[in-house]
Amino acid sequence: MKLSRVLWGAAALGIMLPISANSAVEKRPNSDAESIRAIETRRQSSNEAIAARDATGAAAHLETDAMVIASGGAVIRGREKMRAAFETVFRNDAFVTYLRNPGVIEISADGATAAEQGRWTGVWSAPCGARLSSGVYQARWDYREGVWAARSEHYVKLNEIAADENCAEDAP
User: pLDDT per position in the chain (172 positions), as tens?
Assistant: First the structure.
């Protein structure tokens, strides 16, 4: 429905709408496919920043006041605190990477919100191989000021595979 019809309909009913002369209708992507591609691109950029141990880039897809629930249950509030959490992880020499793989991204009817569901994997090196953690995640994305940004992310650990702790540390 066009905005002008809504305004005229509201005026005919005597309804006052809070609209000023400076109000702007935000331009949304032209299609759900365009929005999905934009979210996938932001997720991929974050994955690449994690692989490069770039804490600022790893958290850049988050809204300033985003909330992240880590797989261990810690609640991290705000992009800056998430950036600091990434810095802490990146200082651990055993850390290799986190990888988030989107499975389904759905766009709301009004085009302002999206839900992303996917799988994640965390990898750490160990003397006899790698330690892997993996699970599922859900993210809420909001479209603001021409950009999709994650409002919240929730990670759930479902699997952990540890390297054999009984092997010799100098084994090939």
Answer: 443 343 334 444 444 444 333 334 455 677 999 999 999 999 999 999 999 999 999 999 999 999 999 999 999 999 999 999 999 999 999 999 999 999 999 999 999 999 999 999 999 998 778 889 999 999 999 999 999 999 999 999 999 998 765 644 443 3
CA angle at 99 for the pair 50 and 130, rounded to the nearest 5°: 95
pTM across the whole model: 0.78
Distance CA 141, CA 31 (A): 16
Phi/psi for 2 (5° steps) reads: -75, 150
| Residue 1, beta-bridge partner list | none
d(CA 114, CA 147): 12
119 is in which domain, residue-wise? Answer: 28-161
In contact, 171 and 85? CB cutoff 8 Å:
no
Q: Which CATH number is 64's domain given? A: 3.10.450.50
| H or E segment and range at residue 8 | helix 3-12
